[in-house]
Amino acid sequence: MPELSPTWIRKLIPSQRGPRFDRVRTVWAPKPTLPIRYLDPTTALDLNGDRPEPTWYVANRLLISRSGDVGAQVEILEKAAQGTGAHIERASLDVSVARHRASHGVARLTIVASGERATSAPDAWAVLQQARSQAGADALAGVGLDHLLTFGTTTQNPFITGNPLTAGHPLTAGHPLTAGHPLTAGHPLTAGHPLTAGHPSGDADDELIAAYAYPGTGGRQPVAYIGAPPQRTDDRSYQGRRPVVAILDTGCGHHPWLDGIVRTDVAIDGHPIGYTDPATDPEADPDQQGYLDGMIDDDSGHGTFISGIIRQACPDADIIAWRIMPSGGLITESDLVDALTDIAELARRHRDGEPDGQPIDVLSLSLGYYHELPKDPAFDKLIYPSLELLGECGVAVVSSAGNDATLRPNYPAAFAPWSDGTGGKPIDPDAVPIVSVGALNPNGTDALFSNTGVWVRAWAPGASVVSTLPTFQGGLEPEARVELDGRIREAEDPDDYASGFALWSGTSFSAPLMAGWLAAALGPIDEKTDDRKSAVDRVWAALAKGTDLTR
Fold first, then answer.
1. Which of 306, 353, 505, 545 matches a 20 to 30 Å C-alpha distance to 468?
2. What mean pLDDT do residues 5-22 have?
3. Strand 86-89 relative to strand 143-150: parallel, antiparallel, unpaired?
4. Does residue 196 register a pLDDT over 50?
């Protein structure tokens, strides 16, 4: 699976308060060979008056579900592409795929400019809308954009200005030694405190949300954990199969709490799932982006942190960590679909008693995207089938709501059944629904950064959470250091994680906490009754204890 490498681009950020554009921000984007386009609602082609909402997508690529009439749909798209001065490359359709990907996977259709004349760069949205206008939306069911997904916790977030780690984080909004770093721009309690003076995010509401990103108010920072490790029942004493929690994130690094408990090598038919190149592992090398800036990347350690949360919530759980996200927290929807398809097949084989399967009871996802036409019932034919199969196999998919302080549905979390019945997926008593999770503050109130709405069905602590982190050492240094009587005295080093623990905030951490709680509620599993129906019944019983979802 190819990985994304970053380059700098600049983009306009749509305001939540109206259609105007109120600021320009520098963000990460994939490597230049993967063209990225912003879907601007003020200029994008609409159809039948359905104005699209903003999103980001691969400009020259369309996705097509392999479960539909692929040949007929490609013919429609080819005709539409010709009308825009482009054509469809069909090479991806000719690549042989595993049987499970043929039924639940997607094909990538590349759009290229036709002829030798100068022309505008191909635009997948324009081709898709032209095709819909010519053949009807129903004929293109299962065809969509290749969206970009983020953790909702990094500088990539392209939609809303309130993300706590995009609006004035001292390590992203200007160089920390020159632009408002609370440890360098005067005493943090008197001059340049992020909550009182000179906050770089600009708007008062953004300032309060962004406060979660600062060390001391919820941002990633080293902490000293002085308790005992979570107590795990000895294998000889544990009766039954341990619950298995899978994570699709940045992988997992070494840590005494996790070594021997977290597996990162689970494959399907000898083929790895997700990214496996050790040279790009952000849990081993935390500076994958901006090699000379001396900074730990925004999301390095993210998967290790999540693994530690699950370890705390359910010490007896076995954990599988697959790497799908780089340290910049940005992937394409097609890569996620590939990984989910493989994971669903592993779970299906196990529940159906077939060889080469893998028991999975809970899958934790801390990523998402905003769809441009959420009222379009056909858009979910790309990413949802694998999630649906997981639910049918008794796997609870727990997904973070996102950190943009918005009501706008964030997918895949918003596939959860909505409490007012107006969206998401309706409850199927014979399957496990998606569980969408918002973040709570330490005092139990809703975190100001957390997305919310009728599509968020569970809440768990996600602000100022303590968990495991690889022993990273970043380029920042203590403000002061002096030696006295052979002992070193210094101010706190803001990015020295030698303790192996950190404090961090985000719905990214609410989701795995809920996943761990569900795993603990499942308890020891009788392998003699580990079929689909028994698994679905177990998870529904656990959901009744920790969510408002009812069967």
1. 545
2. 34
3. unpaired
4. no
